[in-house]
């Protein structure tokens, strides 16, 4: 695995769904808006990283690097 790909993989963001569920319940559902925005932003960020990782692997494959 490429060092660059590993570094990018470490930059992925995770959404703490348990925490957001608890906050949503405690705020009567109002926190759900923040939860949705956070989840969408993290998904978009991770999708962009996945595309960059795919490009690294494609470049490595063209160069014959394992």
Describe the overall structure:
This protein is an all-alpha fold. Helices cover 76% and strands 0% of the residues. It is built from three helices and no strands. The protein has helices at 3-10, 17-26, 32-63. α1 (3-10) packs antiparallel against α3. The longest helix has 32 residues, at 32-63. The radius of gyration is 17 Å and the shape is rod-shaped. The mean pLDDT is 94.
Question: What's a concise summary of this model?
Answer:
This protein has helices at 3-10, 17-26, 32-63.
Give me the strand/helix succession: HHH
| Structure classification | mainly alpha
Mean pLDDT, to the nearest integer, reads 94
What integer value in Å does the Rg equal? 17 Å
Shape: rod-shaped
Helix percent reads over 70%
- Per DSSP, what share of the residues sits in E-state strands of 2 or more residues? under 5%
Number of E strands = 0
User: Helix count, per DSSP?
Assistant: 3
Q: What gap, in angstroms, lies between the N and C termini?
A: 7 Å
Low-confidence stretches: none
Largest sheet: none
Which properties best describe this structure?
single chain; 66 residues; mainly alpha; 3 helices
Topology, pairings included?
Blueprint (H helix, E strand, L loop, with lengths): L2 H8 L6 H10 L5 H32 L3
